[in-house]
Design goal:
The chain is mainly α. Helices cover 84% and strands 0% of the residues. It is built from 10 helices and no strands.
C-alpha cells in the first residue's frame, strides 16, 4: 500500500507540474493557426505525431534530461534563455502571419506537413523550454532509493496523461473555429500569439535572473 500511495503521489506531481505549463488548450489555438488550411486527414496525422513526440520529449526530459545537460555543461537558466528567445521568435512570426491564399491551401500535402510535426508544432509550440525545464527539474529532484521505480513509472504515466490531453485538445481544435467564426478566430489567434511572445520574454527573463543570481 505504501508503494501504491507513493506511485499515486508521484503521478499527480508530474501531471500537476507539467499540465499548466504545457497548456494543451492554449497550445491548440496556435496549432490551429498553423494548420487551419490543412486537409482533415493530414491534420489528424499531425495530431498523432505531435502526441507521440510530446510523450517522448517529456519522458526523456524527466529521466535523462539533467544528465544530458550536465554532460554538455549546460545549466537550466541557459536553457531558459535560449528557449525563451525561440518561443518569442515563434510568437512574433505567428503575430505577423498572413492567412494563406487558396493556392497555398491546395498545395498542402502530407509530406510538407509531416516536416512540421516536430518543429515547430511539438517543439516549441507544444513542449516549450518552460515544460522541458520543469520536466528536467522533476527528474533531478527524484529521490534515489530502493523505491525509485515508482518515480520512473510516474514519469511514463504522467507524461502519457499530459500527451493524451494534448491529443484531445488538438484533435477537436477545429470545433473552436466553427464556434468563433473566421473573424473571431483571427482576433483570438493574434491575442494568443501575443501571449506566446510574453511567455517567451518571461522565460528568458527568468533565465537571465537565475544566471545573474548565480554570479
Amino acid at each position: 500500500m505504501h508503494i501504491i500511495a507513493q506511485l499515486t503521489r508521484s503521478i499527480i506531481l508530474v501531471v500537476a507540474a507539467l499540465f499548466p505549463i504545457v497548456n494543451p488548450l492554449g497550445s491548440a489555438l496556435i496549432f490551429l493557426s498553423l494548420t487551419r488550411w490543412y486537409p482533415a486527414d493530414v491534420r489528424h496525422n499531425l495530431v498523432v505525431r505531435i502526441t507521440i513526440n510530446t510523450f517522448l520529449l517529456l519522458v526523456i526530459s524527466i529521466l535523462i534530461g539533467s544528465h544530458v545537460l550536465h554532460f554538455f555543461g549546460i545549466s537550466l537558466p541557459v536553457v531558459q534563455v535560449a528557449g525563451g528567445l525561440i518561443v518569442s521568435a515563434t510568437g512574433w512570426s505567428l503575430l505577423n502571419q498572413r492567412d494563406p491564399d487558396i493556392k497555398k491551401r491546395e498545395a498542402v500535402d502530407a509530406v510538407a506537413a509531416k516536416q512540421q510535426a516536430f518543429y515547430p508544432l511539438t517543439l516549441p509550440i507544444t513542449v516549450g523550454p518552460g515544460s522541458i525545464s520543469v520536466a528536467v527539474t522533476l527528474g533531478a529532484n527524484t529521490a534515489r532509493s530502493i523505491y525509485a521505480w515508482p518515480a520512473v513509472v510516474a514519469a511514463f504515466v504522467g507524461s502519457l496523461i499530459v500527451a493524451l490531453s494534448v491529443f484531445i485538445c488538438y484533435r477537436y481544435a477545429e470545433q473552436l473555429e466553427r464556434i468563433l467564426g473566421e473573424v473571431g478566430l483571427g482576433v483570438f489567434l493574434r491575442l494568443s500569439a501575443f501571449i506566446v511572445i510574453c511567455i517567451g520574454v518571461q522565460i528568458t527573463w527568468n533565465g537571465i535572473a537565475a544566471l545573474a543570481h548565480s554570479l
